[in-house]
Amino acid sequence: MNSKLLIFVGLFVILCSGGISDCREIQSKNSHCYYEDGDQEPKLLNVEWLSASKINVTVQSPTKDPVCNDTLTFAPETIGHFSFDDHNGHRFKFKTQQPNADWVNGYNFEITDLYNVCNGFIPEHVGQNPYSYVVDYDPKKEPSKKHKSYYINYQTMDSKMCEDCKKYDWCNSCNAKWFRRNFKNWTSGNNDIDKFIQHTQLSANECYEVLEWIPCDRFYDIKYIAKGGFGRVYRANWIDGYIGYWDNENKNWKRWDSSMEVALKSLNNSKNVTLAFINEITSHHKINENASIIRLYGITQDPDTKNYMIVLDYAENGSLRNYLDINYDKLDWKTKIYDLWLIACGLDEIHTNELIHRDLHVGNILYNDFACITDMGLSKPADCNALENTKNSVYGVLPYIAPEILRGQNYTKAADIYSLGIIMYEVISGLPPYHDVSHNENLAMKICQGLRPRFNIKVPQLIVHLIKRFLDANPLNRPSALEVKVILFQWWHELDTEEEEINGTELQKQIKEADEFNNKLQANNNVPSTSLLYETHTGAIYTSRFLNFNRLPESKNSDDYYNQYDNIISIKCSETLQIDISQLKINDDQNNESKDEYYLP
C-alpha cells in the first residue's frame, strides 16, 4: 500500500472513530508555525501520518513555495504533504472569510487544529463577512485573478445589509419588491419570456439566480464568432454588468463588472418562441451557480432579425474542440484527465438536479480557465414543436448520440454518459469522432451495430476500459456521472505528484508503457510527437441538426470492439466503414474481466 493511500486510510479511520478525541498519542517537535523577521528562513510545516492514533509534526526548511501562514490557511493536502506546490487557492478562500475569533490565535495553533483541518473543518461564516470561496477548489489550479476579483466583488455585494429589513445577504422579499416595481418599464415583446424572467427575479435567493431582459443597445463592440446548429454566436461587451445588490441610497441596482465580455447566442426562428422552449432555458437557469456550467445572464433581441438571443459568459478560448486543435500538443495525461474530471463534475451537477443535457458534445463545452458545459436545451430550433412530434426524430451531433436515441427511445442520463464517452475519446486522441466518414444514415446504422471510434494511439487500459463502459450499447451498463467523477479525480490525484513511487500506480505504469509505444511508433513513421493532423470529410457535420432515421437495427455491442481487452487502434476507417485493426502486436497478459475493480469508487 503506498504512502498516499495510507494517508487517506488514516483520515478515514479518524473520521469513523470519532475524530481527534480517540487519538491516544500525539508527538510534536513544534506546536506552532511562524515566519520570523530577519534572516531566518520561513518554515514549512510537514505532517506525517503514522497511524490513525499517532501524528508526527516536524518543521523543516522548504524546498519550494513555503507554507508560512497561520494554520487556518493550510489546505489539508498541504498538511498531509501531498507534494502540491502551493495552497494559494485554499489560502485565498480563508482570506475572503472571517473565521471564529476563538479559533485563531495569531500564528499559533494547537495540534488539534491540524486534525480539524484535515477532517474538513471550515471556519463559520460570521455576520456580514463574505462567504467562503474555493474550499473545494482544486488545490493545483489556483483561481485566476479574474475569478478572484469576480468572487470578492460578487460575495461582498451579495453580503450587504438590507436597509429595510436589516438582514444581510440577498433579501428575497425586499429585492422582489424592487423588481416588481420595475416590471412596467420593460418587455421582451413575448409574454412567455416576460413571465419567465419575472419569475427568476421574484424567486431569486442569490444574485446569480436573477435573469434580466437586456435591451440590445446595452451591448457594444458586437462581433460574429461562429454559426451553430440553430443560431449564430457573437461576442460583445455588456455596458452595465450584472446585478449585485440593491443600492438603497441611489434607489437602483448596484452592478458588478461593467463592460464585461459576454457571448450572445441567437436563436433562429425565435420570434414565435414557445413556452416549451422557455422551459428548456429554465433547465440552464436551475444550475446557473455551478462553476462547471457556463453562466446565463439574461435574454436580449436582435433588432434586425427580431430573433431572441441568450446572454452567456464569454469563453475566450472558444469551444473545447477549438482548444484541442490549438493546444493538444501541450496537453499531458494529467491535464487531459483533469479537464475530463471538470466536465464530469458539470454533468454530475446536471444529473443531480434531475436534468438531462440531451446534446452533449465538444462544441457545447467551452474553455476559458477551465472547461464549462453550455447549451442546456438551447441547441434546438426555438419553434421545434412540430418537428419534435415526428417519430424517431432527434436533435444533436450524430457521433455523440447514443444508439438507443438514434432508434427513437427517450433521452436518459445514460445517453449523456454515452456522449461523455465520445468526448473522452476525443480529448485523449485529439481527433473528432468519425472525422473521415460522412455523418449519414449509414454511420447511424453502423453505430447501432456496434461501431465505436478507434484510437490512433496506444492508450492505457484503464482509460480504454472506462470508455468502453461509457459506450456500451446497453444503457444500464454505463456508469453514473458521479462514479465517473470519482474515478477521474482518483486518476488525476495519482498523476498529480512530483514524488514518483518506486513501482508507481497501475495507471502510471500503463501511461509509461503507452508513451514508450507511441514515441517508438511516431519515430518509425517520422511523425512529430506533438502533431495533430487530420482531415475532415466533407460530409462530417459537427453542429446540432435535425436527424430522422428509420428502420435502424437493434443496438448491440460489437465483438470486434469489446473482445479486444488491450487497445482499440484503427489504422484506417474508410468511407464504407470497414475497420482495419492495427497489426501492431501489443503485449498484455491481463484479462479484461479483472479490470472492473479499477472503476469502483
From TrEMBL:
<dbReference type="GO" id="GO:0005524">
    <property type="term" value="F:ATP binding"/>
</dbReference>
<dbReference type="InterPro" id="IPR051681">
    <property type="entry name" value="Ser/Thr_Kinases-Pseudokinases"/>
</dbReference>
<dbReference type="InterPro" id="IPR001245">
    <property type="entry name" value="Ser-Thr/Tyr_kinase_cat_dom"/>
</dbReference>
<dbReference type="InterPro" id="IPR011009">
    <property type="entry name" value="Kinase-like_dom_sf"/>
</dbReference>
<keyword id="KW-0418">Kinase</keyword>
<keyword id="KW-0732">Signal</keyword>
<protein>
    <submittedName>
        <fullName>Kinase-like domain-containing protein</fullName>
    </submittedName>
</protein>
<dbReference type="GO" id="GO:0004674">
    <property type="term" value="F:protein serine/threonine kinase activity"/>
</dbReference>
<keyword id="KW-0808">Transferase</keyword>
<dbReference type="InterPro" id="IPR000719">
    <property type="entry name" value="Prot_kinase_dom"/>
</dbReference>
<dbReference type="Pfam" id="PF07714">
    <property type="entry name" value="PK_Tyr_Ser-Thr"/>
</dbReference>
<keyword id="KW-0547">Nucleotide-binding</keyword>
<feature type="domain" description="Protein kinase">
    <location>
        <begin position="219"/>
        <end position="489"/>
    </location>
</feature>
<feature type="signal peptide">
    <location>
        <begin position="1"/>
        <end position="18"/>
    </location>
</feature>
<keyword id="KW-0067">ATP-binding</keyword>
